[in-house]
User: Fold GTP cyclohydrolase-2 from Rhodobacter ferrooxidans.
Amino acid sequence: MTLAPSIIERLTRARGDLRMGVPVVLTDGPQAALVVAVEALSAARLEALRGMGRPELAITARRAETLKTPAYDGDLVRLALSDDVGLDWLAAMADPADDLRVPMKGPFHSLRGGSASLHRAAIALAKSAHLLPAVLVLPVTDGAALAASGNLTLLALAEALPELDRASPLREVISARLPMAASQAGRLHVFRPEDGGEDHYAIEIGRPDRQHPVLARLHSACFTGDVLGSLKCDCGPQLRAALAQMGAEGAGVLLYLNQEGRGIGLANKMRAYSLQDQGFDTVQANHRLGFEDDERDFRLGAGMLRQMGFSAVRLLTNNPRKLAMLAANGLTVTERVALHVGQTEQNAAYLATKAAKSGHLL
Ligand SMILES: Nc1nc2c(ncn2[C@@H]2O[C@H](COP(=O)(O)OP(=O)(O)OP(=O)(O)O)[C@@H](O)[C@H]2O)c(=O)[nH]1
Ligand SMILES: [Zn+2]
Assistant:
């Protein structure tokens, strides 16, 4: 054991760096680049990067669709930065808030050929830090030396990509009795991922028999719905109805997964809501921001259930992806228990879009 941080620790540090606007050094074999998230970029850092070479802008193919620029790298686009563009232009490329008011941002100079692996990893890192998926990438010659001299976090893709792709193992930190309105016999378990990500919770009701399928729900955090009683979605009523059903049956387990906004974080979800106020639906809004419509990783829930000793579930959901992901990750789903509650005038279009575009069952 050395004192040097492991790859997992450096990845966690890199997410913090990106959120603070500090460059991170990525290497892929002989290639290296400094990367900075556009959302957190300062004028001084942009100036410094320009003094070192020609930065490139990487955005997702989803964002590029709206900007009407072709994606030569499949899931992403690399654009050369002309000398006259500043922070405002970069911010507008990253954030679609003003797209309708100012639709023309080009002409764009798309880069083709060569490898996009550093750009792709930088976008994945920005997403995992809950930042908009738009990054400046400055190719450099000796990444390791630059990282050492500038005290910057260094990540080699060969080490970092497998960690970014895998669901981080979780360990249970603590559990304690929690009497609730839905059931006196509640217990809250707190699980912590090894990668320094957010904690996730399991609410166990009664003492479900581990030998039988348990009534279960994977609930993704929705601050607006769960806490504020937002009428734009059905999350709050679904949360309470699931707990009530478990209370009535005397047993169940509800996983409360901190995957706010289908995995994009609350700030980006509010950006999506702002686009919804401009007339876009929930799926279009995610795409305009550069995200997929659902960025959640449900492997997490399967791991927590297995760790708690459950191998079969009766799952409260209308989302077929949750059923498929549990099954693919070693859980037996013996039954889907439909969960249709909380329909309002304000969320009718949202629920209809989820049924039409995301395959939610009615
Ligand atoms: N990006 C985005 N996220 C949203 C929006 N409305 C709600 N959410 C999030 O969507 C997620 C809904 O979670 P769930 O209720 O567990 O999942 P679901 O896919 O609807 O599936 P079931 O409720 O199990 O049928 C939460 O993370 C919310 O924060 C939206 O308009 N945009
Ligand atoms: Zn919600």
Residues 182 and 243 are 6 Å apart (CA to CA). Residues 235-249 form the longest helix (15 residues). The pocket of zinc ion (ligand 2) is lined by residues 222, 224-225, 233, 235 (CB under 6 Å). The radius of gyration is 22 Å.
